[in-house]
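Morning!

This is the sequence you dropped in the shared folder:
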Amino acid sequence: AQKKSGIKKRLVCLKVKSPVPLVTLEAISRDGDVVGWVCRTAYGYSVGCNVAWGYVEHPEKISLDWVKSGKYQVECMGEVYDAEVSLAAPFDPKNLRVKGIYEDAA
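The structure's back. C-alpha cells below.
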C-alpha cells in the first residue's frame, strides 16, 4: 500500500545555526509551516554546528525534490534558527574515512 501511495513521513538531518544546544521535540518548519519535529540532537564538532535528526511530514507523497527544495528552520526555546537539510550525515556522507580515504572525506 505504501509503494502506491508513497511515504508521507521522512527522516532528515538538519545542520542548525543555533547558539544554544538543542534538546529534542523542537518544531521543524519548512517555508514557514511546521512539518515535523526533532528526535535526536548533538553538537557536531566536525561540522561546527548543532546537528539534528528529525521527521518531516507531508499529506501528499514526500519526494526528494520536496525535501530539498524548502527553506527549513528549527524553533528552540521560543527562537527560530535557520537550518540546512540533508538526507545523509553532514560529516563524511560517502563513508570514505572508514575506508582510509581522508583527502575527499571532509
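Headline: The helical segments are 2-5, 64-69.

More detail when I'm at my desk.
O.
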